[in-house]
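Q: How do we represent a protein-ligand complex in a form that can be generated token by token?
A: Start from the inputs.
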Amino acid sequence: MTQMPRLKRRHFLVGAAGASGAAIVGLPNVTLAQDGTPLPDYVAWKNADTMIVHSPETLETVRGAIGTSIVTPNDEVYIRNNLPAPDDSIVADRDAWEVTFEGLAEPMSLTVGQLKTVGVETIATVLQCSGNGRKFFEHEASGSQWETGAAGCIIWSGVPVRDLVAMMGGVAEGMDWLTGTGGEEIPEGLPPETVQVERSVPVAMMETAILAWEMNGEPIPLAHGGPLRLVIPGYYGVNNVKYIKRLAFTAEESPASIQQTGYRLRPVGEKGAPSQPSMYEMSVKSWITGPLMDAATGKVQIHGVAMGGTSAVETVELSLDGGETWADAPFVGPDLGPYAWRPFVVIADLEAGTHTLASRATNANGDVQPEDFPPNERAYGHNGWRAHAVDVTVA
Ligand SMILES: Nc1nc2c(c(=O)[nH]1)N[C@H]1C(S)=C(S)[C@@H](COP(=O)(O)O)O[C@H]1N2
Ligand SMILES: [Mo]
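Then emit the structure tokens for the protein with molybdenum atom bound:
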């Protein structure tokens, strides 16, 4: 639920302000998102035309804002914070930000400036919240009602974790987990485990993980985890710890609630527990990003994005008749690797009437996007093609 006043954008439209992203007359520096809610200060730089504000800590990218040029611009990428973002003083001197490394033969602390001299890798990954698609479930799970827009495709630059491990003499004996700790300040009086954003992933992920300082060619904005963020390719958003201050190889999973009981896939009605699957690997998925409602008769450009999850997306099929018949849809643009998504485009001739457009992806592992996805308590992981289909009316 939004905690901001729901201001109707059209009441404030003035002259050349355009269709949206309008400033409120008499209130400087307030920009309204696509849904008419003001953009919170710390993300006032976002492209308002492309954002939906669910709450000050959760902003979604408008479905139709995703185009065919692969990378999601920083000012259109969704935002998900479990705690308020740290003060922007932490990005005043980015190279001075310090990270502590633990659970290695020779543990140490390094600044971002020092990390930049260890090694650099650039990777494209889909960043996607576990709850993306929550709105498509019918059991009305609480939480942000994300549709398709808690996802973006991003190019990151940073140092490979494996290079740091080599530099520090290897992982200490018995450390099965790679644990990242977020740099948020814990509000006074709260036990850290209850709110600390600290996530553990299987230690093998150190082979592909990076500590990133750059996002789509810019220093990572504070809201997206600058000065430094852990990126675990192919894993759900929550594992990509922002403002990382500690990277530890640990014998056990983090005691934080966000690890122990949060982000656990379980049947509706059940409480979260460490025995349940954690939201790690993303699954094969695709969705149409245009057209979404109406189109004129004649030729229509249908486009969308397809991702493989932890293995590359191999094919995507498009149906113009609600899943009765399917045909392969060609990808456009360069292949940015197994963790990126690929846009697909089909130019179709659609007759007057309503058409149900659906897409269905297959990854290199042979996993096919399912028709439906079973309900689960927190409404995570929806990749069912039927719920993601769109009804387009051609006039
Ligand atoms: N430190 C920290 N890292 C975090 C979070 C957070 O609240 N604090 N949220 C996680 C979740 S749930 C998601 S989906 C992604 C969102 O990243 P974004 O805000 O850059 O889109 O960051 C993850 N990393
Ligand atoms: Mo998330």
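The CA atoms of residues 20 and 49 lie 6 Å apart. The longest strand covers residues 353-363.
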